[in-house]
Automatic annotation (TrEMBL), chain A:
UniProt subcellular location: Nucleus
Principal location listed in the UniProt entry: nucleus
CDD domains cross-referenced by the UniProt entry: bHLH_AtIBH1_like
Pfam families associated with the record: IBH1_N (PF26576)
Species this chain originates from: Hibiscus sabdariffa
Coiled coil segments of this chain: none
Protein name: IBH1-like N-terminal domain-containing protein
Residue ranges of domain IBH1-like N-terminal in the record: 12-80
Source organism superkingdom: Eukaryota
Keyword Nucleus: yes
Keyword Transcription regulation: yes
UniProt keyword terms in alphabetical order: Nucleus, Transcription, Transcription regulation
From TrEMBL, chain B:
Subcellular location: Nucleus
Disordered: annotated span: 102-123, 176-280
Keyword Transcription: yes
Biased segments, Polar residues type: 102-121, 176-193
Protein name: BHLH domain-containing protein
Keywords, ordered alphabetically: Nucleus, Transcription, Transcription regulation
PROSITE patterns linked: BHLH
InterPro entries to which the protein is assigned, alphabetical: bHLH_dom (IPR011598), bHLH_ZIP_TF (IPR024097), HLH_DNA-bd_sf (IPR036638)
Ranges where the BHLH domain occurs: 289-339
Record field: compositional bias (Basic and acidic residues): 265-280
Keyword Nucleus: yes
Length: 165, 473
């Protein structure tokens, strides 16, 4: 073949959505930093934090509010100490709504908690927003969260590869 | 006593004409009366248990036709009828009656349930109170009082029946004039009046079973089933068993359908038409399992959760051989943790690598579009979890080496991708796995052939060196 035709990818898939968002934020972060002090560990660490937040945020935005974990993550990111200044009032409103949503889904895990016990609690800690869910919804959220995490890891790996092959 | 028998026999036809029982039932009643005579003369109530089974079906069929039993003859033969039906009730419940007669009030529930083996659709509370209120004077004729109580329960199907019974009870007081008879109906009536509200509900609920639950929901069905199961077990119990077993029997019957009278119960249930479809999820109680709504809902939940676990098993690699929910959950937790750590590591890596690059965003995006095969990298996620331990100062050095090669990298990567494999990242994703390392070296050679190494031999050597170092690690 003379011409290389790249395979068409679904533009609205989770992967492409996340990739575009993340790359955009990444370029913003890169544009912000001064090149001179880039090698200092603190600066690198700060950038690392920003990139990580950007990755999580872009993933959560790609999922929107369809999932409990994405909502929880977005809320968590919005109420971070450094972001508090601009989003105070709206955050409070969202927080109460979010709490209400969580409370609606809270059910006792009596019969199943006996079966799973500690592991369910560990899973709740891992999955954002998992504290207020019963086991069935928790497993549901975990499945979607795993899928999104794998997408995230794949895209970031490709980007990292691209930057430093 | 024999006179009573004769009177009941003669009263039979009038009873039938009053419409109280159907023909079949009257035949059964006739047979019953003959048997009753035997039992009536037999001071040993325990033996009556042996022949109680054939009459249980008779009584149950009688019970199951509430429509026919609307009218109770309210005339002079009420007393005889009461006695007759009391005797009939006694046949079926005889084994439990005599010990129950000395029950204390606080054990009423057990006794009530125990005495219902043949008349499962009757309401328990009535029997309780009537049993309680029987004075000690009845010890001379325990059977009669019990039969009277039985009849009150027996007629519990219909409220009109109940009312007429009360009426007949009052009349019997006048007829007999004996204190013993007087006491029982009066005292039986007052608590029955108090319990009428409850009994009405019970009778209506119990009527659902024979009348076929066309409108019954799952919950309502489970309640009569639960009650029905309570009833047969005591009948199977030994007659001499103390009353304290009555309560435990009624409780146990919920868990195990007792085989003795349980068969009869299940036959009745099997004869019912199948449930019509209803609005929400219906779970049929399996044989030998509890039927209360809590356990049913719990079972549905457990099934949903196991289905979810199976789905997760497909999602998490390497979980196919794992059996058991706890181990599966551990695997899932480990996988999620490793994924999160991978994200952290990658972001750290990006923070390091970024500084020197002015990468064309579009090229990057198109590169992402190309890469649909992340299988190689994806399959070694476990190794990536160990990547964060990789020396951190290592990477900037690579950046120095390879950044100059970046302008060529895009083209070479494009061409590489067309070959269908992906070059594992140099800095650290590959590992100690020799297999991957060998692939990587092959890729490098192909890169060299494509001209990547031509422009940047230095970078190539550097990358080779780092790659080798990596493999050692």
């Amino acid at each position: 073949m003379n011409k290389y035709n790249p395979p068409r990818m679904n533009p609205s898939s989770l992967r492409s959505r996340f990739a575009t968002r993340f790359l955009r934020s990444l370029s913003k972060i890169n544009a912000k930093k001064p090149t001179a002090s880039s090698s200092s560990p603190t600066e690198i660490f700060r950038r690392y934090r920003r990139i990580k937040v950007a990755a999580d945020k872009s993933m959560a935005y790609s999922v929107r509010s369809r999932r409990t974990w994405s909502r929880a993550m977005l809320w968590k990111l919005r109420t971070r100490p450094c972001c508090r200044r601009s989003v105070k009032t709206s955050t409070i409103v969202r927080k109460t709504r979010h709490e209400k949503q969580n409370k609606n889904t809270t059910t006792t895990t009596g019969e199943d908690g006996v079966v799973f016990g500690v592991e369910a609690d560990e899973l709740r800690e891992l999955v954002p927003g998992g504290e207020a869910m019963d086991l069935y919804n928790l497993l549901d959220e975990t499945a979607h969260y795993i899928k999104c995490l794998t997408t995230q890891v794949q895209v970031m790996k490709k980007i990292a590869d691209f930057y430093s092959p | 006593m024999a006179e009573v028998l004769n009177r009941t026999a003669t009263r039979q036809p009038t009873w039938n004409t009053s419409g109280f029982v159907t023909e079949m039932q009257s035949n059964e009643l006739n047979c019953a009366t003959e048997q009753v005579g035997n039992y009536f003369l037999n001071p040993n109530w325990d033996n009556s248990m042996d022949q109680s089974d054939p009459f249980e079906s008779a009584l149950s069929s009688m019970v199951s036709s509430p429509a026919a039993s609307n009218v109770l003859p309210v005339s002079g033969e009420n007393v005889m009828m009461r006695e007759l039906i009391g005797k009939l009730g006694n046949i079926c419940n005889s084994g439990d009656i005599s010990p129950q007669f000395s029950i204390k009030p606080n054990t009423n529930t057990g006794s009530a349930n125990a005495s219902f083996n043949s008349t499962p659709l009757n309401s328990p509370p009535r029997l309780n109170l009537s049993m309680v209120n029987l004075p000690a004077a009845f010890s001379a004729d325990p059977g009669f009082a019990e039969r009277a109580a039985r009849f009150s329960c027996f007629s519990g199907l219909n409220d009109p029946l109940m009312d007429s019974f009360k009426l007949s009870g009052n009349q019997s007081i006048k007829v007999d004039g004996s204190q013993s008879i007087k006491n029982s109906p009066m005292e039986a009536n007052s608590p029955e009046n108090a319990e009428s509200g409850v009994s009405k509900e019970d009778s209506s609920v119990s009527q659902q079973i024979p009348a076929r639950n066309d409108a019954g929901t799952r919950k309502r069905k489970s309640i009569p089933r639960g009650k029905a199961k309570e009833i047969p077990s005591p009948a199977a119990a030994d007659a001499k068993v103390a009353t304290e077993n009555g309560e435990s029997n009624s409780k146990r019957s919920k868990q195990d359908g007792s085989p003795g009278n349980g068969n009869e119960k299940q036959n009745k249930e099997n004869s019912k038409p199948p449930e019509p479809p209803k609005d929400y999820i219906h779970v049929r109680a399996r044989r030998g399992q509890a039927t209360d709504s809590h356990s049913l809902a719990e079972r549905v939940r457990r099934e949903k959760i196991s289905e979810r676990m199976k789905f997760l098993q497909d999602l998490v690699p390497g979980c196919n051989k794992v059996t058991g929910k706890a181990v599966m959950l551990d695997e899932i937790i480990n996988y999620v943790q490793s994924l999160q750590r991978q994200v952290e590591f990658l972001s750290m890596k990006l923070a390091n690598v970024n500084p020197r690059t002015d990468i064309n965003m579009e090229a990057l995006l198109s590169k992402d579009m190309f890469q649909s095969r992340g299988s190689l990298l994806h399959g070694i996620y476990s190794m990536d979890s160990s990547a964060p331990t990789f020396p951190f100062g290592y990477q900037p050095q690579q950046g120095l080496h390879l950044n100059s090669g970046i302008p060529n990298a895009t083209e070479t990567q494009f061409s590489m991708k067309t070959q269908g494999f992906q070059l594992p990242s140099i800095d650290g994703f590959t590992d100690a796995n020799p297999h991957v390392g060998s692939i990587w070296e092959d890729d490098l050679q192909s890169i060299v052939q494509m001209g990547f190494g031509q422009n940047q031999p230095q970078g190539y050597q550097g990358s080779i060196a780092t790659g080798q170092v990596k493999i050692e690690l």
